[in-house]
Design a protein that fits this description.
Order of helices and strands: EEHEHEEEEE
CATH topology: Archease, Possible Chaperone, Chain: A, domain 1
Mean pLDDT: 94
Number of domains: 1
Radius of gyration: 14 Å
Structural class: alpha+beta
Low-confidence stretches: none
Helix content: 10-25%
């Protein structure tokens, strides 16, 4: 379950995600859930395996793209799907633990194929109620 909320945005040949959360960690966790939900049903994924991710970028918006690209890589290249995302952020450094299992088409329904995370209309902002981000995915 995502610690924040997200909505899908219509975009030609792509899909956008707008995420709202109380903290940067919750923002990144929710973005990970949104990406995964586009590809499969996270409710069908058991956290049998653990993967760790460590990233550093120059800004939070670039860190968000790297984070989502890393998840996409683990799904595409390693054949893993995730349902648990625990993120820690210090400045523009991210440490995360992901819980999931190997993708199994008999258990995990295939939804959209996400090809890439883009920089188009990329945005991470803070406001009185917390944090907001927008990212466009190439499908």
């Amino acid at each position: 379950m995502a610690p924040g909320s997200y909505e899908l945005l219509d975009h030609t040949a792509d899909v956008g995600i707008r995420i709202v959360a109380e903290s940067p960690e919750a923002l990144f966790e929710t973005a990970a859930v949104a990406l995964t939900e586009l590809m499969t049903d996270t409710a069908t994924v058991e956290p049998k395996l653990e993967s760790t991710v460590a990233l550093k970028e120059e800004s939070l918006d670039l860190l968000l793209v790297s984070w989502l690209q890393e998840i996409l890589y683990l799904m595409d290249a390693e054949g893993l799907v995730f349902s648990v995302f625990e993120v820690r952020i210090e400045g523009t450094k991210l440490q995360a633990t992901l819980g999931g299992e190997p993708f199994n088409p008999e258990v995990h329904p295939r939804r959209s194929d996400v090809k890439a995370v883009t920089y188009y209309h990329l945005e991470v902002t803070t406001h009185d109620d917390g944090w907001q981000a927008q990212v466009i995915l190439d499908i």
